[in-house]
Amino acid sequence: MAEDKLTLRVEKWITMPRIAASRFRRSTKTNHSSRLQKDMDPAEDEDTLTMKTIKGATTAFVAGSIWGGIVSTWYNVPRVERPGFVRTLKMMGNYGMTCAAMRGVYIGVKQSVLKYRMKRDFVNGAVGGFVAGATVLGRSISTAISAGTALAITSSVIDIFDMGKDPYTTKKKPSADS
């Protein structure tokens, strides 16, 4: 009797890895694409909210820095002296960071609203524009409302008259039905 229990335990111990391996094989066959997505580095996926926000903010920082350099020449900043160069760099950084913050907030909110609503229309851009204008440019409540409204209207007009391309990629926008 004791021998039967021992044999049963040994047989169970031998067959368990086979059962576990077959379960693992079945799960990997059915969930192959999800496993690939988990194994992929998030920085490699260009369609995530984070990557779109980072790309937009980086682009806006570069453009804002260039614009800050142009504006600094209008304010009679001496070009040769060291303090003048430092003031130019500060102005470039200020413009660059403001543009990056606005673009980052705008894209982040717009893509979040798009993901939440699951609709691709002008409302997403209007909400993103309002939040970006109100948070970055709003020093007081009235200024925040004015800046947010101005950016929301601008974004809505651009989204309404846009030609059907996704501004963050080179692909055509999918229709609302798919």
TrEMBL record:
Protein's UniProt keywords contain Transmembrane helix: yes
GO biological process entries? protein insertion into mitochondrial inner membrane
Where is the protein found, in the record's own terms? Membrane
This protein's source sits in the domain of life called: Eukaryota
Q: Which cellular component appears as one GO term in the record? A: chloroplast
Q: Report the main location listed first in the record.
A: membrane
Pfam families associated with the record: Tim17 (PF02466)
The membrane-topology field of this record reads: Multi-pass membrane protein
The protein's matches in PANTHER family, at most eight in alphabetical order, are given as: MITOCHONDRIAL IMPORT INNER MEMBRANE TRANSLOCASE SUBUNIT TIM22, OUTER ENVELOPE PORE PROTEIN 16-3, CHLOROPLASTIC_MITOCHONDRIAL
What is this protein's name?
Outer envelope pore protein 16-3, chloroplastic/mitochondrial
The species this protein belongs to is: Senna tora
